[in-house]
Every structure is written in C-alpha cells, then in structure tokens.
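I hope you will forgive my troubling you with a question about protein structure. I am sending you one protein, given as its amino acid sequence and as whole-number tokens for its backbone shapes. Thank you for your consideration; the sequence and its tokens are set out here:
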Amino acid sequence: MAICFGVALICLLFGIWKSTQRVVAPGIHELELPSAGKYLIFHEYQGALAGKAFRTDKHLVWDLDFHLQAADGTEQPVVSRSEANEYYRWGNTNGIAVLEFSVTKPGKFLLTARYPDERKTPEIVLRIKRPLLTQILFPLIVLNVIGILVIALCAGLLWRTFFKRRAAKKQMGLTVAI
C-alpha cells in the first residue's frame, strides 16, 4: 500500500500543475478543459506570469464579470462563486479559489473576464484547474485497488502453494509408508 500511495503522490504532483491553466484578466482566453466535471477559478493574488510580477488585492476579482462558453457554442456553463475552501502557496505564488463551473464534456471553452466599465487595468492572474480533492482521490482509489488486487493475487498464490506442498508431503509420506 505504501508503494501505491507513493505512486499516487507522484501522479498527483505532476497532474496538479500539468492540468492547470493561467490567464491574465481582463480579457478573452481559450481554455482547453481535458475532462468533464467541476473546475475552479483561482485568483492568484501574488505571483508572476510571462515575466510580469503580480500582487493584487484579494477582493479585486469581484469587480470583474465572467462568462464561459464552449468554443463551438454548444454549452454555456454557469460561472458562480466557489464554495471550495482551497488556496495554494507555492514559493512566492499565492492563490485562492473564488469561482467554479462545471462542463458536461471536454473541449475548448472561451473564458471572458471584463470590468463592467470596460477598463483594462488593474490586471489579475487567474488559475483554472480541477478541485484538489478530485485530483487526489482518483489516483489514490485506482492505485489502491491495484494494490489490493496484487495483495489478493499474492495471497492466492501463497495459499495454493501451501496446499500443493501439503498434498505433496502427504503423497510422499504415503509412498514411503507402502
């Protein structure tokens, strides 16, 4: 089980940051969402993107209006306030979950973030990713199921070996006695 947990942890660390997309708002950005389900939008109030440092007020994100739609126009997920209590601190990068949405299919989506008065500043960084619990549970469940199957297979082989040896000893004992 420890091996399964270690592999799950490695998968988690690589998967969390690989599936993350960062954009600067206000603006219109194409997002590639790799799977159906829930996503969170984090306000990265401290960090850097494309060589530019950002340090913004945590509440600035609420001044923006958000809209999301599938690039092909087939879906318009509702962007709402996040109930997730997630945040991150990675070196000098800090962010907090502020919004969430769900999509019914993977694909390309257009995220629009605008100030109501159409101004272009101040700019903020948004990080879009799956909820942490979703990213942790799937690898842990899959790898633990594999671990349980391996343990069951080994126990079955040990059990079979034990009875075959026991039968062989009985047979040898009977053969010697005759």
